[in-house]
Amino acid sequence: MELFECLLQIIEPTSLTDKQKSSYTTHFFNYVIHFVVEEYEQRMLQISLEEDHNENTHEDLSQFTLLQRMHEEDMFKLMGSDVLFNSGILLLLDGIEQRVRNV
């Protein structure tokens, strides 16, 4: 509740409605929580893959051309990284800023 209150206080001076403030703060808060949960799940998956390293654990991505390309470029290694977290935060903040300008 303390973090939620702090986030609301940050956008309180804007011309957004209370409904918008609550909505945007909730989205921001949910992003942070989801990112932490995703990071935990990635660690658990990595542990599982390390334990099963003798088995063929790679999925056939040939039918998913974009995912396959991103996998080959090691894009999935960004999952759970500070770089990905920061880019998501910036995207959310840019979107909120855009909404504030349009009000």
From TrEMBL:
Biological process per Gene Ontology, one example term: negative regulation of DNA-templated transcription
Keyword flag Glycosyltransferase: no
Keyword Transcription: yes
Start and end residues of each Tetracycline repressor TetR C-terminal domain: 1-99
Keywords: Transcription, Transcription regulation
Domain of life assignment: Bacteria
Protein name listed in UniProt: Tetracycline repressor TetR C-terminal domain-containing protein
Protein species of origin: Paenibacillus azoreducens
